[in-house]
Amino acid sequence: MGLEESLPAGIALTSVEKVLGLARKYSQWPVTMGLACCAIEMMAAGTPRFDMARFGLEVFRASPRHADMMIVSGRVSHKMAPIIRRVYDSMPEPKWVISMGACASSGGVFNNYAVVQGCDHIVPVDVYLPGCPPRPEALIHAVLVLREQIGKEPLGVHRREIARRAEQAALEATPTHQMKGLLA
Questions:
Q1: Which among 30, 46, 101, 153 would be 20 to 30 A from 125, CA to CA?
Q2: What is the span of the domain harbouring residue 144?
Q3: What is the pLDDT along the chain (184 residues), one digit of tens a residue?
Q4: 37: annotated binding-site residue?
Q5: CATH of residue 29
Q6: CB within 8 A of 38, min separation 6: which ones?
Q7: Is 82 helix (H, G, I), strand (E, B) or coil?
Q8: Per the domain annotation, does 60 fall within a domain?
Q9: CB-based contacts of 96: which residues, under 8 Å, 6+ apart?
Q10: Looking at the 3D structure of the chain, how many domains does it have?
Q11: Is 184 inside a domain boundary?
C-alpha cells in the first residue's frame, strides 16, 4: 500500500519551502517611491481602469518598514540616491525591487552629472521594466514576472547568500559613464 492510499482524503503533501514560497509570491506590499513621470503611470495602475487591487497591490505603503517591494519609478538624481538606499535598507527581508522606466533603469536621455545612470548602482534590481514611460499594463506584467521569481526563490540562508551576491555584483558593476564605445 502506497503513501497516497494510506492518507485520508483532503490531505496534501508538500514542503514548507513551497508553502512559504506560495505565501510570499502573492503578498507583496509596495513602498511609495515615485520620482518622476513614471510615477504617474504607477498611480494609474492602481486606478479602477487597470486595477492592481485584483493582485493585492492596492495599498502602497508610506513606511518602508511595512513594505517588501520597491518600485523605483523615474529618474534618480544623485541627491535622491542616498535616500533611496536608506529606504531600501529600512525594508525587512526578503525585499524586491522593480526598476520602472528607462530613466530608472539606465538614466534614460539624462546622461549628465545630476542623474544616476541606473538605480542598480544604488539597490539590487530584480525586474527591469522598459519604456518611457511604461504603461500601467507593463507594470502589472512586471509584478507578475517578479512573482514568478519569488515563487522559485529558496528560503533561509540560501536566499540571503543569493541576495548578498546579487547586490555585491550590482554595486561593483562598471558605471555607465565609464563605459566606452557606443555610449560615448
A1: 46
A2: 24-173
A3: 555 666 666 666 677 777 777 778 888 888 878 888 888 998 888 888 888 888 888 788 888 898 989 999 988 999 999 999 999 999 988 889 999 998 888 888 888 888 888 888 888 899 999 888 899 999 999 999 999 888 877 776 677 777 778 778 877 777 666 666 654 4
A4: yes
A5: 3.40.50.12280
A6: 73, 74, 100, 101, 103, 104, 133, 134
A7: helix
A8: yes
A9: 28, 68, 69, 70, 126, 127, 146, 149, 150
A10: 1
A11: no
Does a structural domain hold residue 61? yes
Q: How far apart are CA 151 and CA 2, in angstroms?
A: 29
The distance in angstroms from the start CA to the end CA of the chain is: 70
Exposure string for 110-149, b = 16+ CB within 10 A, e = fewer = beeeebbbbbbbbbbbbbbbeeebbebebbbebbeebbee
C-alpha cell recorded at residue 74: 523615474
Nearest residue to 107 (alpha-carbon basis) of 70, 99, 153, 141:
99
Q: Which long-range contacts (CB under 8 A, 24 or more apart) does 138-144 make?
A: 139/41, 139/42, 139/45, 139/52, 139/71, 139/98, 139/100, 140/45, 140/50, 140/52, 140/55, 142/98, 142/100, 143/28, 143/52, 143/55, 143/57, 143/98, 144/55
The answer to whether 119 is annotated as binding is: no
Does 125 fall in a domain?
yes
Contacts of residue 71, Cβ cutoff 8 Å, sequence gap at least 6: 30, 31, 33, 42, 97, 98, 100, 139
